[in-house]
């Protein structure tokens, strides 16, 4: 029996910010998202729950020591990718 993977849905903001990253970083993001689909709390993602006004159940995950992305669960097996950027990306919120 195979476990069902999470469906991952990026927002327009996530895709816009992803396009600004280097090719090396984009490849690392792809690897991190592949892990997220199987186990959103896998240790290498260093997931932390974060509190931002108006954003319930938002999580931060690490791609590498510089790149972070934000996501949240949406009804069952769906993960919404909210935003991505360098370590200080959270400051814009």
Describe the protein.
This protein is an alpha+beta fold. The protein has a domain at 43-72. The chain contains two helices and five strands. Strands 1-5-4-3-2 form a five-stranded mixed β-sheet. Strand 3 and strand 4 form a beta hairpin. The longest helix has 16 residues, at 23-38. The N and C termini lie far apart (41 Å). 20% of the residues are buried. The model has no long low-confidence stretch (mean pLDDT 89).
What's the helix count? 2
What's the β-strand tally?
A: 5
- Largest β sheet strand count, sense and barrel closure: 5 strands, mixed
Helix and strand element order: EHHEEEE
Write a brief structural summary.
This protein is of the alpha+beta class and 93 residues long. It has helices at 12-19, 23-38; strands at residues 7-10, 48-52, 55-62, 67-74, 78-86.
Which tags fit this structure?
single chain; 93 residues; alpha+beta; 5 strands; 26% helix
Describe the secondary-structure layout:
Blueprint lengths: L6 E4 L1 H8 L3 H16 L9 E5 L2 E8 L4 E8 L3 E9 L7
